[in-house]
Amino acid sequence: MILARPTKSFGLYCLNLETEVLAPTGFHRWNEIDVSDEIAGFNPQTEEISWVPVTGKIVRPLQADEHMVHLYSVSIDLRVSDHHRMVYRPRRHGTRQWKIREAQELKNLNDTYHIPVAGIQNAPGVPLSDDELRFIGWFLTDGTLNRSNNVIQI
Known about the structure:
3-stranded antiparallel beta sheet; Hint_dom_sf
């Protein structure tokens, strides 16, 4: 996917073929998204999510000067090119400002960090109570499902 911002680097936006992007109808793989489809865009200043059109799509091999970086933790499993610009925030208590670093730099950080996986959006509500939404949020951020007995642990 090509994000609509000025850059001279061809390789900033190289994603793994298994990477999914968020569209208004849910997560989709690269081959399910077309030019002019909308995908989620995160604004680090306002923490708002807006739907932005895909302006282009290129399927290409990695360039000679780039490699894939795997960012993996309990809550993150991403593969992007080393120069892919990532929005993140250090996990230090009280840190609210989002920052930008290339994926390789982020992987080499000794500190832990958050990558935005949600944002604020002016959208119609869902027929769920606040407690149900809170439970879903807890499960998605700190929970697991024990597949042997189907018990949810948070």
